[in-house]
Queue: 2 jobs
Job 1
Amino acid sequence: MPAQAPASHQIPFRSSLARLAPEARPIIPRLLAGLGVGLSASVLAVLVPQVFRAVIDALLRPGAGPSAVVWAAAVVLVMGVFEAVLTFLRRLFVLDPATNVEASLRVKIYRHLQLLPVSFHDGWGSGQLLSRAMTDLNMLRRWLAFGAIYLVISFATVIVGISMLFTISWQLALIFLAAAIPISVYSFRFRRQYVAASRRSQDQAGDLATAVEESVHGIRVLKAFGRSREALENFAVQAEGLRETEVAKARHLAVFSMVVTLLPELALGSGLMVGLWLAATGQITVGALAAFFATAAAVANPVEMSGALVGMALTAKTAIDRHYEVMDEPVSITDPADPARTGSQPPSAATRGALAFRGVRFAYEPPRPSRTTAPRAPRAGKQAPSRAAAHDDAGRPVLRGVDLELVPGETMALVGITGSGKSTLLQLVPRLYEVSGGAVEIDGVDVRRLPLAELRRIVSVAFEDTTLFSSSVRDNVLLGAPVREGPEAEAILGEALDVAQAHFAYSLPEGLDTRVGEEGLSLSGGQRQRIALARAIAAKPSVLVLDDPLSALDVATEERVEARLREVLAETTTLIVAHRPSTVALADRVALLRDGVIDDVGTHSELLARSAHYRYVIASLDTEPRDLDSGLDPDDSLDDLEEAR
Ligand SMILES: Nc1ncnc2c1ncn2[C@@H]1O[C@H](COP(=O)(O)OP(=O)(O)OP(=O)(O)O)[C@@H](O)[C@H]1O
């Protein structure tokens, strides 16, 4: 387990920036070009007062003609045009690289999220991940394209400007410089406060996004239980928390901006009095005095903007830290260093589908505080706990030594009381989680020694809680299929829909091209399950792992599905979590999971005869058909079903 990450305000700014080096390296030439033209533009702006100085002094010289004014005006005009062109070029140079960095970091975080194990996703709110992939990177892009360049330009302008001030009058320049001392002292304090507030606000924005996402997904539950108002109140508390942080952030920025505006103005005021005295006593010319104030104004502008620029830089730093918190999470489930087989072997030829659990132990990882959001300010109201935090079992063993063998082509039902670890055991087969001890084997090979792509081709899964993607029925079903286009794919699709008894899909408004999923047509729970089951079948697996995917089907449909499954996937080994006697009755054998171990294995009748715990579990299973498509009598007994086989 990696060491706990330091809180973001403890990471020095330079270290945060250094993380961007691999992204920034290719764009450095363009950034430098942008910086170069930006600097030239600002140097031009600082030089304009020197022209004024020359003009005024020339005009005040006895016998001076108006031609000096014409020349000066022409020079100022040319300098102005140059400055405008340079500013345009600066934008042109930096915009493209900044958007490239944003896009590349976004793709990287998405790819990393795909690679990270399910245990990582258990511990993170989806809004947190969403805000890191979207808002944070947007802020970073804006800073790279504008803030970072402008900060350097402003700094250089101030340095050049102050040097110019010294060439005009060292006494006046010293007065101006005196204002810089309290500004730099104060900026230290500001930086600390602002980084903490900025981190808090970006985390709170992520939490808020999670809250919106959860309530949109759970809108039916909230409405059905009349909890919309309570959800709104909780949301309002969270939104208020974010507002307060934003206000605190803005307040820090306002005070800092006030300091950086006020002090140079005070310096200018005092400088004016001293300057007039110096001019009156002939120590400087009137032209020099005018040039001094024009230059001082040009220097004061970036100083005044420094509050906003520093704020932007600190926000970008927080965005970088938040991005790399996710990127630094280790991908713990990876391809083996010495694979037992190569991915090029055709699975059907190489895999018979003998599935074995050997002394399998498993405990969910306890949630680490650094995994969720960074240090938060205490705030009123309830905070939705992360998913892993909601499980008291995290860290405690769920499976304590499971031994179970399935012969190729066998269908085995897994039963046990609720929370006994059935779903957990299933998820170890395709390595959605990694065993804490022991091994899961397919054809005698530890699944950890199979390349992940191959393992997930051999093993196909369907869960009770079905996820359909926003695309057509066809795309959803063929998601894991060996071929996804052409006549062979169509044949696989037709067969999978037939086995899953999902014929309804043909009569959808646009047939198999009908868009389903979040942004598509709403399907019933049973329909969704059938599509998800078809997806698992279309993958042509050697091992099929079904986590009660038929729970929303009526008993008759379930039976038809099982019968077709046997026909079509006669060679497929199936491990199915059963929550209904009907599912149990359709299996070849049943395994009883109890207290983290397999308590007994046998046929349904054998277990009924010899295991009191099995009888207890069976008695507590749901006997009601949930999707009343068929009109089957719910009182149909198990024996009838067994006979039906
Ligand atoms: N992601 C998770 N993080 C931490 N603990 C978990 C997680 N998922 C499940 N658990 C815990 O592990 C134990 C086993 O859960 P599991 O879902 O495997 O049980 P189950 O037998 O499938 O239950 P059911 O029959 O109700 O579906 C439970 O105590 C549960 O609280």
Job 2
Amino acid sequence: MKIAMLARNANLYSHRRLVEAAEARGHTLDILNTTRCTVNIASHRPTVSYNGETINGFDAVIPRIGASITQYGLAILRQFEMSGVWPLNESVAIGRSRDKLRSMQILAKHGLGLPLTAYANDPKQAEELIKAVNGPPVVIKLLEGTQGIGVVLAETMSSAKSVIEAFRGANVNILVQEFIKEAGGTDIRALVIGGKVVAAMKRTGAPDDFRSNLHRGGSAEVIKITPEERSTAVRAAKRMGLNVCGVDMLRSNHGPVIMEVNSSPGLEGIETATGKDVAGMIIKCIEDNARSGKTKTKGAG
Ligand SMILES: Nc1ncnc2c1ncn2[C@@H]1O[C@H](COP(=O)(O)OP(=O)(O)OP(=O)(O)O)[C@@H](O)[C@H]1O
Ligand SMILES: [Mg+2]
Ligand SMILES: [Mg+2]
């Protein structure tokens, strides 16, 4: 097969591994710098150009769109879908997953466990928000944050109120969440490919941090997840419409609660912790599913 990957940095571990895995299985994988792709909307046949030349002949596209260029990257991916190229994850599904509030609304609608979460636009309602999630303490997070940046633990009413007011003053959208203390600074990342959990790891934050993100100095190890955690991850992936994703959960007193679903999960942490060939499994998922013209929405929605 001829596979394209929308990515900006060819040297990232995840991207290098996907190229390696594709080639090992007899395919070609071309990395296209997302920001150098352009769409040609005027033509009858929707096309994508790269460095000024129309590209075609790809059987599948792997979107690895950075959070800072979500809108542009999704426009390019939609154009691939419209031209009949099978996307590993669809643009519509990625769009949902990039908005934490929207994701949580979808997951809640289907009865999946979530931390108590509140959202409001008006900082005057700060106290109400904090009480709505049985705090303080509360966790306050940016709606479109990533790598743990913009996730704050506020332990008292006054600190929670000032953090909420500061974020709102800076005109950014935030969620206020129940603090799952019993998780003890540890979260679980379950990697779902094609409706199955293929690998899982436990991430523990640096000793002085409640956030377990590897980018914030956390460490990862392999973990055996419970059947309830497994089915939670699989159902979340299904409801979000993602073929490949990382489902992040906390172990709460009332069972697994989902923090978020990542549509471009990093491979380094999970492959190192579990010793599994996750990149190879992603390429296999493409082999099993990619069919020309079978792009589900074909750009709709
Ligand atoms: N409600 C909560 N209770 C306890 N700990 C939490 C809560 N929410 C987040 N955390 C901790 O903070 C970390 C970062 O939170 P979250 O994953 O929501 O942010 P992010 O910036 O989107 O990170 P990512 O890079 O994984 O996308 C989590 O991995 C978890 O360890
Ligand atoms: Mg995130
Ligand atoms: Mg996270």
